[in-house]
Fold this protein.
Amino acid sequence: MTIKYALYPTNFGSKKPTYYARVITSQLLDTEDIIEIVAKRGTTVTHTDVRSVIDILSRVIEDKLAEGASIHLPFANFSLTIKGQFNEFSDKFNHRLHTITPTVNKGKLLKKATFKHLPAQKIRIPKKHPHLITFKDLASGTNNDMITPGGLGILLGYNLAIDLLDPTQGIYLVKKDKKKIQYPVPDIGKNEDSELIFKIPDDLEKGIYTCKVCTMLRDGTPGSGKLVYTLAHPSVHRRRKSTTIRRPRNSGND
């Protein structure tokens, strides 16, 4: 299991920029996911048993917190805090100015746990989904029209930068047919948020395509964007250009 992380600027106004690491969430597990995992751990408890324990534990924690108790469990410590400003020592709690909220901190079990053995991989995270605006086919000199095998393609837009070390990210040419086959682009040159330059695969089949860019969002979930224009293989483009629309002849019955 590799822990993925990204670096973000601290924005403290220092002349020399510094950065902090943020772990990228690989998956989000809810109560049902945890119940499924616990039930599969070779125990004799059933899904119903695990669900009942979680439900009862949650209610007990809520009830005891409402009584002003602090709860220390192996995995977490629970307590209540009051938020809001008190301007004078004589000030009292006011529901319009102050709130009572639960606080959760790691318990003794997690404090003792060590994750030093886990490998970490640095990745680049765009803030938003890729937004593709223009595709330039250098071989034909066209924009948002043709795609020439073996030629160079240029994508312009926003949030396009790809982490080339992440196999889930990349540029894909999606064929517009029933199978919707995706052709990954292996050769990417310029790789920036506003521009991608790449070689169009030599063996790109005849057909109509759309272009898709896959990245990773800040929260660790996949992000993607598609070009709104369709791109035609040169042979398909010639047939399309040579096709004319014939008007029906006047039957003379009008």
Remarks:
- The CA atoms of residues 143 and 184 lie 21 Å apart.
- Confidence is low (pLDDT under 50) at residues 242-254.
- Residues 3-121 form a domain with the HU Protein; Chain A fold (CATH 4.10.520.10).
